[in-house]
Inverse folding.
């Protein structure tokens, strides 16, 4: 039997729901919980995991597409929720009866074999964070729902083996969309969501030196597409002279079945998903 290896599986990504499953041996964590409870439990079963086996649910912020069923899942299966104090406060009565383990922004915590660290991101939530998760010498850094980035963001992401970063929209499609002007301004604002070019610029700063794997996440169904996101990010990387970046684009929800979800395994350094990834 092979040694344990950090494995990341994308169950959902986008404005209709977000959830990443992290596994190391028999240990498992859920990063965000933005799907209906039954849907999420079903997707976990397809991955051969009962919800009660989760060590914890980690929340990046309180918005429904990231925290929809976190409280219900935690109560039903006796799982703690890990978040910062302001996110806990924003969720309020939803977390009644749930064990909450607070993780202040920027601090570290050990959850079984996992080491976790949060870092601030720019988004219009109470105190949104990105997360960096490590186990067995490998790490994944997650930064979704952010409208801008800084050198601190670069430092938090740099060196991770897998980067899960938002490429929410294409600028021109957003401008041409039927969204009200106020919503367009919110999306493209400094506390909104990264567009494809901004995502590429961030990755060009992060992915220097060693090769890295990237999942483009949180794509808008109305103002982006997998092809536009991949092409736009790749163009920026090429212009910056950054090579060695392998790009995958996450679907809004994993397909049914044990092999239906995008999966990254540290032992292989491969992105595994039929017809969705550019290797």
């Amino acid at each position: 039997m092979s040694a344990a290896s950090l494995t990341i599986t994308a169950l959902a990504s986008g404005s209709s729901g977000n959830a990443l499953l992290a596994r190391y041996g028999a240990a498992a964590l859920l990063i965000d919980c933005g799907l209906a409870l039954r849907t999420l439990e079903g997707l976990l079963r397809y991955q051969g995991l009962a919800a009660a086996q989760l060590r914890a649910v980690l929340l990046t912020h309180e918005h429904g597409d990231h925290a929809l069923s976190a409280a219900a899942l935690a109560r039903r299966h006796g799982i703690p929720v890990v978040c910062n104090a302001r996110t806990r406060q924003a969720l309020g009565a939803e977390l009644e009866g749930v064990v909450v383990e607070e993780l202040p922004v920027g601090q570290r915590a050990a959850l079984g074999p996992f080491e976790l660290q949060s870092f601030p991101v720019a988004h219009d939530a109470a105190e949104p964070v990105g997360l960096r998760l490590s186990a067995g010498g490998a790490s994944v850094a997650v930064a979704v729902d952010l409208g801008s980035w800084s050198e601190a963001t670069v430092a938090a992401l740099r060196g991770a083996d897998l980067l899960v970063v938002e490429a929410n929209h294409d600028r021109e499609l957003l401008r041409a969309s039927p969204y009200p002007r106020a919503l367009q301004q919110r999306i493209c604002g400094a506390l909104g969501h990264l567009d494809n070019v901004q995502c590429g610029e961030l990755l060009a700063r992060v992915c220097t030196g060693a090769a890295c794997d990237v999942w483009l996440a949180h794509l808008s169904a109305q103002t982006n597409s997998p092809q536009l996101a991949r092409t736009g990010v790749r163009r920026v990387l090429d212009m910056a002279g950054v090579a060695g970046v392998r790009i995958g684009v996450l679907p809004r929800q994993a397909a049914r079945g044990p092999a239906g979800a995008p999966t990254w395994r540290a032992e292989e350094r491969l992105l595994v998903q039929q017809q969705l990834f550019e290797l």
User: Anything to note?
Assistant: DSSP finds nine helices and 15 strands in the chain. Residues 270-279 have pLDDT under 50 and may be disordered. The first helix runs from residue 37 to 46.
